[in-house]
C-alpha cells in the first residue's frame, strides 16, 4: 500500500515533480530514487499568510510498483427498444439523467430548445458583435446549458447532495483533465467543455437514446394528474408517462406554462446585483500579497476570491468568480440585458470578474404580487429591462466605476472592459430598487476593508447580474422526487430550484433518473 501524506510546500516545489519527490523523500527518510511513483490526490492553495503555500495530499509508492487504473465509462446498455423517458433540457441535469437512464436500461428522449454545442457559437457571436438575441440559442439555452459557455466550474459545497467524485470521474472519462479530481476548486474551462458535452451526446445516441435540438416544449400533456407526453413548437406530440423537467434557471416560458396550467409552483428567493471586473494582477496582489507590478510569479495560478458580508440584515457575496476571465452577455430575450462571467481553461485573460450579489427575500417581490408564483421572475425581468433602456436599448450594459458607485456619482468615462458588446456610463442606482443600491454601496465599502485595494475606481461594475438561480421552485415529493401534484413529472436541477451549478445539477439529474427507474419497477 502507498503511504499517504498531508504536506505543505512552496508553490515552486508543488509545481515541479523532481523537487516534490525530493521533499517527500526527505520527510520519509528515504532516497529520492526509492520513490517509484508520487500521486497528487488533493491540491489547494493557502494564501492566508504573506508567504503563500500549497497544501497537498499525496500517495507515495516507494516499495511497490505503481499501476495506473484507467478511468472508464460505465457499462451502458442498448436501450433502443426500451421504455422511453422524456427529458426536457440538455444541460448538465438533463445529460446526466440521460446517461443514468441508459445505464439502468431506459431510453431517454432529450428535447433541447437550442442548438448543438458547436452551432451555438454563431448565436453567441451574434449577441456579442451584432446585439442580436436568439431567444432559443444563447449563453443560457442550447446543448450543455448555461454552464457550457459560462465557465464550467465544478466546485460544489453541497457534498450531501450525492456522489461528487462519481460526477467528476464521468467528466474525466468523457475527456476532461484528470486534474479536476485533484483540485480543491476544479474547473474545466469554457473552451474545453464543448467537446466533452459533444462526447456525452454521442454516447447517448450510440446506445439508443435520442437528442433532439431546436425543439421547444410548448405544452405538457396531463391526464388524471399524470403526465402523458409533451407538445413541441412544431405541433408534434411525443408520448411518455415519465418526464424529467430539467430546463434551467432561465426558462421563463416553462414557468409560465406551469402557472397557466395550474401545475403548482412557488416563488423562490434568489440573489441579484452586479458583475465587478478588476485587473487580474490587482486581485493577485491582494490575495497573494505580491507586488502588483511584478505579479504572482510562475508557479501560482491567477487568484480567485470569495467574500461574504452581512449588510443591514442581508447577505452580500461574491458569486461565480472568474479569475483570468471575461464578462459575457446572457440575455435570453430582446429588450433585456444580463451579465455573467467565464474563464478559459488556462484563465489567462488580464481581467478577473465576479458577480457581487445581494440576498433577496420573498417580501421584496411584493410590488409584483399580482403575478403570484411568478413575482420573483417579474421582479428580475423588470430590472433587466430597465438596464436595457438605460444603456441604449442594445446589448450594451450600464456600467460605473466602483468608487463612483459608492459615492452616487456618474462616472465621467468607462474604460474598455472584457464585455464585448460595450458599456454605457450610468449611475447604477437607477437600475436597482433603493434597498439593493444601498446594500451594494455599503457592502463594497466593507469589502474594501477586508481586501485592501479591492475598492478602487479601476474596478468597473456591470449591471445586472441577475440569473444567479431560479426565481421559482417546482415542488416535488421528498421520496419519489415527483411533482407534489402531477405523477410522472420530475422537476430537476437548477430550474426547479434543486441545484446551484454543474455538479449539483448533474447529481440531481442522476437522482431523478434513478427514481424514474425505481417507480417503474414498483
UniProtKB/TrEMBL annotation:
<dbReference type="Pfam" id="PF01134">
    <property type="entry name" value="GIDA"/>
</dbReference>
<protein>
    <submittedName>
        <fullName>FAD-dependent oxidoreductase</fullName>
    </submittedName>
</protein>
<feature type="domain" description="FAD-binding">
    <location>
        <begin position="84"/>
        <end position="116"/>
    </location>
</feature>
<dbReference type="Pfam" id="PF01494">
    <property type="entry name" value="FAD_binding_3"/>
</dbReference>
<dbReference type="InterPro" id="IPR002938">
    <property type="entry name" value="FAD-bd"/>
</dbReference>
<dbReference type="InterPro" id="IPR049516">
    <property type="entry name" value="FAD-depend_C"/>
</dbReference>
<dbReference type="Pfam" id="PF21688">
    <property type="entry name" value="FAD-depend_C"/>
</dbReference>
<dbReference type="InterPro" id="IPR028348">
    <property type="entry name" value="FAD-binding_protein"/>
</dbReference>
<feature type="domain" description="FAD-dependent protein C-terminal">
    <location>
        <begin position="269"/>
        <end position="468"/>
    </location>
</feature>
<dbReference type="InterPro" id="IPR040131">
    <property type="entry name" value="MnmG_N"/>
</dbReference>
<feature type="domain" description="MnmG N-terminal">
    <location>
        <begin position="199"/>
        <end position="255"/>
    </location>
</feature>
<dbReference type="InterPro" id="IPR036188">
    <property type="entry name" value="FAD/NAD-bd_sf"/>
</dbReference>
<keyword id="KW-0285">Flavoprotein</keyword>
<keyword id="KW-0274">FAD</keyword>
Amino acid at each position: 500500500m502507498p503511504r499517504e501524506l498531508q504536506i505543505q510546500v512552496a508553490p515552486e516545489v508543488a509545481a515541479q515533480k523532481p523537487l516534490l519527490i525530493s521533499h517527500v523523500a526527505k520527510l520519509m527518510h528515504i532516497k529520492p530514487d526509492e520513490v517509484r511513483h508520487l500521486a497528487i490526490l488533493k491540491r489547494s492553495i493557502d494564501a492566508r499568510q504573506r508567504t503563500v503555500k500549497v497544501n497537498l495530499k499525496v500517495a507515495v509508492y516507494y516499495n511497490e510498483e505503481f499501476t495506473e487504473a484507467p478511468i472508464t465509462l460505465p457499462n451502458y446498455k442498448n436501450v433502443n427498444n426500451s421504455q422511453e423517458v422524456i427529458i426536457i433540457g440538455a444541460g448538465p441535469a438533463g445529460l446526466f439523467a440521460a446517461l443514468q437512464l441508459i445505464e439502468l436500461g431506459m431510453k431517454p428522449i432529450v428535447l433541447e430548445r437550442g442548438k448543438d454545442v458547436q452551432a451555438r457559437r454563431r448565436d453567441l457571436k451574434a449577441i456579442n458583435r451584432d446585439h442580436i438575441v436568439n431567444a432559443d440559442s444563447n449563453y443560457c439555452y442550447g446543448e450543455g446549458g448555461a454552464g457550457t459557455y459560462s465557465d464550467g466550474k465544478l466546485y460544489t459545497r453541497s457534498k450531501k447532495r450525492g456522489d461528487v467524485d462519481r460526477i467528476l470521474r464521468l467528466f474525466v472519462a468523457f475527456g476532461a483533465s484528470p486534474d479536476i479530481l485533484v483540485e480543491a476548486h476544479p474547473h474545466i474551462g469554457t473552451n474545453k467543455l464543448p467537446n466533452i458535452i459533444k462526447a456525452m451526446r454521442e454516447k447517448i445516441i450510440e446506445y439508443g437514446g435520442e437528442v433532439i435540438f431546436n425543439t421547444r416544449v410548448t405544452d405538457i400533456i396531463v391526464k388524471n394528474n399524470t403526465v402523458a407526453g409533451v407538445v413541441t413548437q412544431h405541433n408534434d406530440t411525443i408520448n411518455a408517462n415519465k418526464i424529467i423537467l430539467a430546463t434551467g434557471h432561465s426558462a421563463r416560458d416553462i414557468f409560465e406554462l406551469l402557472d397557466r396550467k395550474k401545475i403548482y409552483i412557488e416563488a423562490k428567493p434568489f440573489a441579484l446585483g452586479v458583475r465587478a471586473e478588476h485587473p487580474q494582477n490587482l486581485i493577485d496582489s491582494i490575495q497573494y500579497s505580491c507586488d502588483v507590478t511584478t505579479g504572482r510569479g510562475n508557479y501560482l495560478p491567477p487568484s480567485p476570491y470569495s467574500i461574504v458580508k452581512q449588510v443591514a440584515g442581508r447577505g452580500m457575496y461574491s458569486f461565480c468568480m472568474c479569475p483570468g476571465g471575461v464578462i459575457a452577455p446572457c440575455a435570453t430575450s430582446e429588450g433585456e440585458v444580463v451579465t455573467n462571467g467565464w474563464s478559459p481553461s488556462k484563465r489567462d485573460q488580464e481581467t478577473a470578474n465576479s458577480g457581487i450579489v445581494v440576498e433577496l427575500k420573498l417580501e421584496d417581490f411584493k410590488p409584483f404580487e399580482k403575478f403570484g408564483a411568478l413575482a420573483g421572475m417579474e421582479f428580475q425581468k423588470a430590472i433587466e429591462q430597465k438596464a436595457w433602456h438605460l444603456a441604449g436599448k442594445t446589448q450594451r450594459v450600464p456600467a460605473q466605476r466602483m468608487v463612483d458607485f459608492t459615492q452616487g456619482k456618474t462616472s465621467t468615462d468607462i474604460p474598455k472592459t472584457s464585455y464585448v458588446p460595450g458599456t454605457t456610463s450610468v449611475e447604477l442606482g437607477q437600475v436597482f430598487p433603493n434597498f439593493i443600491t444601498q446594500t451594494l454601496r455599503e457592502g463594497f465599502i466593507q469589502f474594501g476593508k477586508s481586501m485592501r485595494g479591492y475598492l478602487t475606481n479601476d474596478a468597473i461594475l456591470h449591471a445586472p447580474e441577475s440569473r444567479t438561480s431560479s426565481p421559482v421552485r417546482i415542488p416535488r415529493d421528498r421520496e419519489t422526487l415527483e411533482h407534489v401534484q402531477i405523477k410522472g413529472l420530475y422537476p430537476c436541477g437548477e430550474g426547479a430550484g434543486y441545484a446551484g451549478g454543474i455538479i449539483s445539477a448533474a447529481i440531481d439529474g442522476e437522482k431523478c433518473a434513478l427514481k424514474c427507474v425505481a417507480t417503474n419497477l414498483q
